[in-house]
């Protein structure tokens, strides 16, 4: 497993554009959007907080996760399948699941680094808050990341080739960003749209993130939705995934 992880890390280093996109996109948007004067004013819809205090950093962490899970991971796995790497590995004593595990771990680390950089950049440049409930934050991040990476594997399973995998992921990503409140805060969403958001995994993820910023433990319904999503998407990924 260690050797596979080392090889995958070196390959990721060669594909520097994917790594840079995962890190630079959310941080860049955070710093650009954070300069909008209205987002730096206390908002009654957010309990008197500024949008840049917790809502915007949580959204950018979600963006980093979805970029990793929906474009980087499916693209890598589709490339391996297309090149016959998975088929050849399946005939050796080293189970292909080790490669899958290494990919998941590496992408999780990439997303975690992006999240840390988002929080630090927001604090230093915008004066944003940092999560007050650290253990709750880690729980939400790991549970949400696992669910989204599992969904990324479902995308990898249905993508016909490596070129289409990131495109399919991007098509799926933008509706999820919308229901998560990227463009319309959940507090002012119509009831129907808010209900969709409540059961979309990404909505509970952002809400739970904001709870940890305020020093509160994540609410059980939010954790439950993410856990159900993890189980569902993992089951679909295992059932649909093809080694060749």
Automatic annotation (TrEMBL):
It is a multi-pass membrane protein. Keywords: Antibiotic resistance, Cell membrane, Membrane, Transmembrane, Transmembrane helix, Transport. The chain crosses the membrane at residues 16-36, 56-78, 99-122, 134-158, 165-184, 220-241. Residues 17-244 form the ABC transmembrane type-2 domain. Coiled coil: none annotated. It comes from the Bacteria. InterPro entries: ABC-2_transporter, ABC2_TM, ABC2_TM_bact-type, ABC_2_transport. It holds the Pfam family ABC2_membrane. It is found in: Cell membrane; Membrane. Belongs to the ABC-2 integral membrane protein family. This is Transport permease protein. It comes from Nonomuraea corallina. The lineage of its organism: Bacteria, Bacillati, Actinomycetota, Actinomycetes, Streptosporangiales.
